[in-house]
Design a protein that fits this description.
Helix content: over 70%
Distance between the termini: 32 Å
CATH superfamily of the largest domain: Tetratricopeptide repeat domain
Strand content: under 5%
Structural class: mainly alpha
CATH topology of the largest domain: Serine Threonine Protein Phosphatase 5, Tetratricopeptide repeat
CATH class of the largest domain: Mainly Alpha
Number of domains: 3
Order of helices and strands: HHHHHHHHHHHHHHHHHHHHH
Radius of gyration: 22 Å
Length: 398
């Protein structure tokens, strides 16, 4: 994004209208410190923030045009993260006031970028280590007390990032510990936004472990609590659907997914927090396809998973290969050999760049089908063998 010109233009507009940064942050439901960093040119605005500001300030697409005029390649974000890593660690150890909260948030932001770079860069260990530094300092009171709530809020976000990364790496026990810490700090600081995101993660973790009723209970405790922004409600409707299909209520699950999809039809809402960028039609289609797969309806699952796995559709996430793995499995289940072989070839190419433990496990299940296929062409079995070989390769070999 063209950050410098964008931030200057927004500052000019706010000055012309006599609007404060704090008032705008409150109107758009964004963290004041985050919005301040964007308007000072210290942080790139999210797509959702750009859209929200464009709507709030009635600029009729001008801010969107400025922000996207010169889109910086994602690789540069990884380079920035790497070059600043030593300095950022130092700040986590030494900052004590508002700069401590800022250092924690910037660490979280860089970790999220890396998590979604290419097909994902494993961030579980650095995220956990970074939070342990922060957790130690919180326990010892090694910070300026007047910034306590902001520091706790930033720490909750970092714990949430670590909890998500550990879950994706299939470190279940550690993920549970970090999720509980994130929820504790979010509630302590009054950060409802991160508390909601963490509860979503906890419901997802429960569902992944086969504890579907537990996932459903977590989800409905949020849905029945009060008004949610459209994309946050959509996020919990997805979780509700997965809990429902896991407990055998497929038709109710499909109804929940339909509600999730309708909630995001109108695009970004100014009340949505910045972190809901991943709640998209592609995401919903992936879960919709998985719901049909769980229910044993492979043809309907294939229809949805084809939409989710379509290259270049929607935003990129480090776990995007899950839909392709599930699609390959469904195609094998219905003996669609040629289509299955095409998808599996794409997985052979993608595997070296995938770090998501959950995704790799699903791809491994597909590779294991080689000896169980009756009547499959030799070329398909050879492709599955090739996939097995790629999965067993040293990920650090050049």
């Amino acid at each position: 994004m063209n950050g410098g010109e964008f931030s200057q233009r927004v500052r000019d507009l706010l000055s012309d209208r006599g609007m404060s940064v704090r008032a705008v942050a409150r109107r758009l439901n964004y963290d004041h410190a985050y919005l301040s960093r964007v308007l000072c040119g210290k942080q790139q605005p999210s797509v959702q923030l750009v859209a929200g500001l464009d709507q709030l300030l009635s600029t009729d697409g001008e801010l969107v045009d400025i922000a996207t005029r010169r889109a910086a390649p994602m690789a540069s974000a990884e380079a920035t993260a790497s070059s600043a890593a030593t300095d950022r660690t130092l700040r986590l150890h030494e900052a004590r006031g508002a700069d401590f909260a800022e250092a924690i948030r910037e660490t979280s932001g860089r970790l999220v970028v890396l998590d979604n770079e290419l097909d994902g860069v494993s961030i579980a260990e650095p995220a956990a280590r970074a939070f342990k530094v922060v957790h130690h300092r919180l326990g010892n009171g090694d910070y300026e007390s007047r910034y306590e709530r902001d520091i706790q809020s930033a720490a909750a976000e970092l714990a949430e990032v670590a909890g998500w990364a550990l879950f994706d790496a299939e470190s279940d026990g550690a993920a549970q510990r970090f999720n509980h810490e994130a929820l504790f700090l979010a509630n302590l600081s009054g950060d409802r936004s991160i508390a909601l995101l963490t509860l979503q993660n906890m419901a997802m973790h429960s569902e992944w472990r086969g504890r579907n009723q537990e996932a459903l209970s977590i989800t409905r405790s949020v849905l029945h609590r009060g008004r949610l922004s459209p994309r946050i409600e959509a996020m919990f409707r997805i979780r509700e659907a997965k809990g429902l299909v896991g407990t055998g209520r497929t038709s109710d699950a499909i109804e929940s997914l339909g509600r999730a999809r309708s909630l995001i039809e109108d695009g970004v809402d100014v009340g949505d927090p910045e972190w809901v960028w991943w709640v998209t039609h592609r995401e919903i289609d992936g879960h919709w396809g998985h719901a049909f797969q769980i229910a044993g309806d492979a043809p309907k699952a294939i229809e949805r998973l084809l939409q989710s796995a379509q290259p270049g559709r929607g935003v990129a996430t480090g776990y995007a290969g899950m839909s392709s793995a599930r699609l390959a499995q469904c195609l094998l289940d219905v003996n669609a050999w040629r289509d299955a072989e095409d998808v599996i070839r794409s997985l052979v190419i993608a595997v070296p760049g995938i770090s998501s433990g959950r995704t790799l496990r699903l791809i491994g299940h597909v590779a294991e089908q080689r000896e169980r296929l009756n009547g499959a062409p030799t070329s398909l079995k050879d492709t599955l063998e090739h996939l097995s070989v790629r999965l067993d390769e040293d990920p650090f070999a050049l």
